[in-house]
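Incident log, structure service

09:12 report received: a user says their structure output differs between two submissions of the same chain.
09:20 pulled the input from the user's history:
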Amino acid sequence: MGAQTLTSHGTLLPLIIIIIMTNMHTTMAASSSTPEPHNSYLLRACNSTTYPQICYKSLFSYASTINSNPQKLCSYALSVALKAARNASSTVTKLSKRNGLTHSEALVVKDCIENIRDSIDELKQSVSAMNNLGGANMEYQLGDIKTWVNAALTDDDTCMEGFDEVKVSLYVKNAISKSIVNIARLASNALSLTNSLNY
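09:34 re-ran on a clean worker, output below:
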């Protein structure tokens, strides 16, 4: 009898372990596949932008800080665009010092650097205004922010138009184009999010 009980316990024990492990795995899978509320908010907000995947990827690391705050979301979106503009400025400035640029290439690159610097100034103003948004004239403040972001996008376009007018090497054009397109997409997303703000 004792041996029979031991055998039945010996058979049950591995079965119990398998059931527990399966339940743990199912629970862990469910918890990891369910997005946290702030990630859900970010995903939903980014879906309203021109470039949803870029929006989500660029802001994902700030999701817990943004939480479900639309103003913080816009502030971070503008800050990310500003960072991209600063990176582009660095890239294009390095290109301007590259040996072998023709005279016309050097002029176009120089103009582009000025456009990017203007874009940086406008994005800086928009970030500052968004961080200090409040008071009775919020609609006016939002209008200023949108104007600055639109101006930054125009500067980016102006930079790229310069390359259509002058023959430049594919390397120079591609290197600058990649940086400018990045700023433009991030700024466009920031503008979409700002347009969604309701006060």
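09:41 both user submissions now match this output. Likely a transient worker issue. Closing.
09:42 reviewer note: The chain has a mean pLDDT of 85. The helical segments are 2-33, 37-46, 52-59, 63-66, 70-96, 103-131, 138-165, 170-195.
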